[in-house]
Amino acid sequence: MRPVTRIHSRTAVLPDENIDTDRIIPARFLTTTTRTGLGKLCFHDWRYLPDGSDNPAFPLNQPAAKGCAIVVAGRNFGCGSSREHAPWALLDYGIQAVLCSEIADIFRNNALKNGLLAIVVSAAEQQWLLANPGIELTIDVQGQYIALPDGGRISFVLEPFARHCLLHGVDQLGYLLQNEKLIAHYEQQEQAA
């Protein structure tokens, strides 16, 4: 996992509420344990027409959304089944952060563990962000704030362990491996006691 310290991007908006994990990546594509290539399947049934061509009605297919790494979503993003493939698909698609007033807990935990920022903002902040698509934001993980174009800030809170892992580019296993010497020392002390 790469360190996530700061993200600067324009925003794309997915205003629909209750975008579940099956909408993010349909269950029929969960046959892989690798992350690579899932971006082309991200939002598959919403993003493509039955003939495989781009759906012009899908918000992220709009020219203004191209290259946006920050998505502002409608309430209750990531609800539904627990699948790590959902954050994998979003990351492989190029999305680095999702901002929403309500994000499903399991999705949020899976996202943060995989380097995708899933940030909860207030309902009023979400409505303002939804009403202003395409603005440039800077998300500062260390300072836990989103810098707005007018100089204002939106504060957010990350669980301290998740924040540490994001800033250092490690997952839970990587964190344990970073502390291997301390763990070995502790085990030696326990065996000697």
Automatic annotation (TrEMBL):
Listed A to Z, the keywords are: Amino-acid biosynthesis, Branched-chain amino acid biosynthesis, Leucine biosynthesis, Lyase
InterPro entries, per the entry: 3-IsopropMal_deHydase_ssu (IPR004431), Aconitase/3IPM_dehydase_swvl (IPR015928), AconitaseA/IPMdHydase_ssu_swvl (IPR000573), IPMI_Swivel (IPR033940), LeuD (IPR050075)
State which pathway it belongs to.
Answer: Amino-acid biosynthesis; L-leucine biosynthesis; L-leucine from 3-methyl-2-oxobutanoate: step 2/4
CDD domains in UniProt: IPMI_Swivel
Q: What would be one Pfam family of this protein?
A: Aconitase_C
Q: Which GO terms describe its molecular function?
A: 3-isopropylmalate dehydratase activity
Which EC class heads this enzyme's classification? lyase
> EC number(s) in its UniProt entry?
4.2.1.33
Q: Can you state which reaction this protein catalyses? A: (2R,3S)-3-isopropylmalate = (2S)-2-isopropylmalate
Q: Give all residue intervals belonging to the Aconitase A/isopropylmalate dehydratase small subunit swivel domain.
A: 10-122
**Functional note:** Catalyzes the isomerization between 2-isopropylmalate and 3-isopropylmalate, via the formation of 2-isopropylmaleate.
Family as reported in the entry's similarity comment: Belongs to the LeuD family. LeuD type 1 subfamily.
Q: What is known about its subunit structure?
A: Heterodimer of LeuC and LeuD.
Fetch the PANTHER family from UniProt: 3-ISOPROPYLMALATE DEHYDRATASE SMALL SUBUNIT, 3-ISOPROPYLMALATE DEHYDRATASE SMALL SUBUNIT 2-RELATED-RELATED
Protein name (Swiss-Prot/TrEMBL):
3-isopropylmalate dehydratase
> Which species?
Rhodanobacter geophilus
